[in-house]
């Protein structure tokens, strides 16, 4: 399956950009005007159940999404490419890496889900699992993971986009997949260059979690922390995000 996608830039260095659980490809809108389109060519994709693929049927798993990403790269004629994955997109990117390591030049994770998945306590699971049907729970998640510090109008806009551009059933099934999947023993020791970007105000996928997971399992991983961001760096610190991502990928 070739995923719906926006192509930005015509540079020789190709990059697949993979969105998170609560947003679609448009969640990267704040960074798009500042990309180096002469060096890089970016494809911003929508998984099944999201955005322009909202009505596309599927199993709605991170493994399926990874295969769709590879199919899309094939359709674009991209033999080699890098991956940028936000949140759930970080887990999808790792599945792409496992399926086709020889095609992946580098991987950037933005507050990325670790290869071990995410364990929840009972209260946390109720909050996340109920978010498919309850917009107010999506809002609570976004507020929590950005440190309860951002404007109400921004929270409302994030929820409106999330609800409007996701299929409820797909949204709920992806949660089971990205939270309950554990592939860390399969990625451990990987020599693919990895940059992990974490927000200091994200209590869920914090810098400490990144150190205990990603940096333990990838031999060429490095960590950068945004001191003025939580989980949503594309919105919170778009210029710094572009600078870090492209600086790393140029290397």
From TrEMBL:
Span of domain AB hydrolase-1: 15-235
InterPro entries recorded: AB_hydrolase_1 (IPR000073), AB_hydrolase_fold (IPR029058), AB_hydrolase_sf (IPR050266)
Superkingdom of source: Bacteria
Gene3D superfamilies: alpha/beta hydrolase
Molecular functions (GO terms): catalytic activity
Family matches, as PANTHER family: MONOACYLGLYCEROL LIPASE
Protein name, entry field: Pimeloyl-ACP methyl ester carboxylesterase
Organism for this UniProt entry: Halopolyspora algeriensis
